[in-house]
Here is the input.
Amino acid sequence: MPVRTVLHDADIARALTRISHEILESNRGSDQLVVLGIPTRGVALARRIAALLGELGGDPVPVGALDVTMYRDDLHRNPTRAPQPTDIPAGGIDGKTVILVDDVLFSGRSIRAALDALQDIGRPAAVRLAALVDRGHRELPIRPDFVGKNLPSASDERVNVRLAEVDGIEEVTIES
Here is the structure.
């Protein structure tokens, strides 16, 4: 299987900085934001984005994790990983703008599950989606608000995001 690297560590850092600037611009600051990552790599990306938002906006931005495993509608078809802890910041999400962060946006099913999970937690003022990679092939009418890289790919290709916090290496690859 040929593997092609499409983003290196500097490219990922640049994409996250751009996403953070776009989030601040579209929300007129960071005071009403909560950043939630979808495990596993979405959490690492959410922490990086929250740190950048804090640096750029001047105020710390609450960050947490939102596990969507048990909200997925395709558990019967796909082997799943063990559920991860959901960690909602102390101030909650009610009335806040929640930025959901995921590593790769593909079918949209993880995001649909995340929206269902959010309903059980609270009522945000708005929900926005940030994805490091948007590879297309949507099965649901879901579109990211902030994208690091649009990466058209064939449906039989695999996009792998590897992050230093999880994998010890920083790259995005495509396997044919």
